[in-house]
Amino acid sequence: MKLRSSFPNTGKRPTLEELKEATNADLHPTYVADAHTLIGVPVEEYDLVLADPSYSAEDADHYGTPLVDRNKVVRVLAERMAPGSHLVWLDQAQPMYAKKLLKPEAAIGIVRSTMHRYRCVLIWRKLAPEG
Ligand SMILES: C[S@@+](CC[C@H](N)C(=O)[O-])C[C@H]1O[C@@H](n2cnc3c(N)ncnc32)[C@H](O)[C@@H]1O
Q1: Which of 128, 34, 123 is nearest to 72 (CA)?
Q2: What are the sequence ranges of the domains in the chain?
Q3: Ligand 1 within 6 A of 95 CB?
Q4: Cα–Cα distance between 99 and 110 in angstroms, integer?
Q5: Which residue from 5, 70, 117 has its CB within 8 A of the most atoms of ligand 1, so it is best to mutate?
Q6: Once rounded to an integer, what is the mean pLDDT over residues 35-41?
Q7: Ligand 1 neighbour 61 (Cβ under 6 A)
Q8: What is the pTM (predicted TM-score) of this model?
Q9: pLDDT, tens only, 65-74
Q10: Which of 2, 3, 50 should be mutated for ligand 1, with most atoms under 8 A from CB?
Q11: Of 12, 40, 60, 82, whose CB has the highest number of CB atoms within 10 Å?
């Protein structure tokens, strides 16, 4: 999924219509959806989810979007992903996650160069439902 969007930073989450209007058609995205709901995206069908959200309010300003609620996005993904699939998340802060749904498998620190911020790639595996 390739998604780009640009819309006024109103402090509110983008509506699907705003995301659709803001999508750069040149990128030919397969799906356009708000990451907080992922409505219309068949998350269950993928073995791997790569997430590269805006890391801070300043970054969100740069993209012209409100900052995502990272905990909510991870919650929606964890509920919808297929057991055994993986979530790879690049960020500056670890989102909260449900331990009964996601098992952390790796955390890789990234140092780009002197005086650049640290980032981390977090990798979780979706667990099979208990019982
Ligand atoms: C760090 S950039 C990721 C760039 C991406 N890796 C790429 O190569 O194009 C964060 C992206 O998240 C998008 N974004 C922000 N809020 C979003 C939301 N609620 N739902 C979906 N995408 C959102 C922004 O428009 C921005 O393109």
Answers
A1: 34
A2: 43-126
A3: no
A4: 24
A5: 5
A6: 94
A7: no
A8: 0.84
A9: 889 999 999 9
A10: 3
A11: 60
Q: How many CB atoms are located within 10 Å of the residue 23 CB?
A: 17
Q: How many Å is the maximal CA-CA distance in the chain?
A: 49
Report the SS3 class of residue 29: coil
Question: Could you tell me whether strands 86-91 and 102-111 are parallel, antiparallel, or unpaired per DSSP bridges?
Answer: unpaired
Task: Give the residue among 76, 91, 94, 82 at the shortest CA–CA distance from 37.
Answer: 76
Q: What is the average pLDDT across 76-90?
A: 98
Q: What is the pLDDT, as a whole number, of residue 8?
A: 46
Atom 8 of ligand 1: nearest residue by CA position: 2
Query: Residue 109 pairs with which residues in a beta bridge?
Result: 120
Please name the CATH architecture into which domain 43-126 falls: 3-Layer(aba) Sandwich (3.40)
